[in-house]
Write a structure and sequence with these properties.
The chain is mainly α and 299 residues long. Helices cover 71% and strands 2% of the residues. It has helices at residues 3-17, 27-36, 45-74, 76-90, 94-109, 111-117, 131-160, 165-185, 194-218, 224-228, 241-251, 272-298; strands at residues 255-257, 261-263. Helix 7 packs across helix 9. The radius of gyration is 19 Å and the shape is globular. Its main location: membrane. It is found in: Cell membrane. This is Probable cobalamin biosynthesis protein CobD. Keywords: Cell membrane, Cobalamin biosynthesis, Coiled coil, Membrane, Transmembrane, Transmembrane helix.
Length: 299
Amino acid sequence: MSLTLATLALAVGLELAWGEPPARAHPVAWFGRAIERVDREWAHPRAVGLASALVLPALAAGAVVGVVSLAAPLDPFLGVVAAGLALFVSTSLRMLLDVARDVIAESERDLAEARESVRALAGRSAAELSAGELRSAATESAAENLADGLVAPLSAFALLSPFSLSLAAGGAAWVKAVNTLDSMLGYPEKSHGTASARLDDCVMWLPARASAVLIALAGANPGALLRAREWARAPPSPNSGWPMATLAAVLGVRLEKPGVYVLNPARELPTVSEARRGVRVVALAGALAYLLSGVFVWS
């Protein structure tokens, strides 16, 4: 078994067994605290934002490359462990799917609890959301996070794996850092986050569309991609609409962020069973992403 394939297998095993490290021990949480130091008023916000977008992800990637490069010469097994841990913390799927399932279940029995839980998934005011809108938020977030949390960093790892294990792990960390920067700073009211948002738009262009293809395949509905083209540009993001619109087409439901966008507007909001199917489709799409990455690094 190649070292890169062993690294991928370790990351998958940790994802299945663990899901997510606790926040106090999560490098992404540490990186988030570093970003908080930048998230304030500046005399020259765009210059600071550009420097942050260029430097912070590079530092995160450089740290991973350095650790793996130091570990691998000591023992190939240590290199695999270091790279596998880096890939594991750079990707995320199981925890997000678990939260989505919780929101869907709670939408049936306790709206207040569902409104509280959905805050971990979607950046929207949940106080007035109906049961159907809560299920929509959970379903949309599952699709969007497939691209952000798994396909993008996993693709970077696979594409860089022919060069070296350290570069592959560093590439995954860089993509995760770019996405984390955007999630914390990439808002219109934060001019110091403009560069981070634009960088994330570029990085996510292909993974978002690849995720849409995976969702269509997982839902056994390739034609959903054609229908998704009608609504994929409705969200403000140039990328997130693709996996979300494709899932809306696969399920035959309306997915909606009130006051912002509507996907598949002629249909109704998802029922509990439809939303649960949506989570299963995303889970299968994630498994396909791991499988295809494994085939790529093996070849």
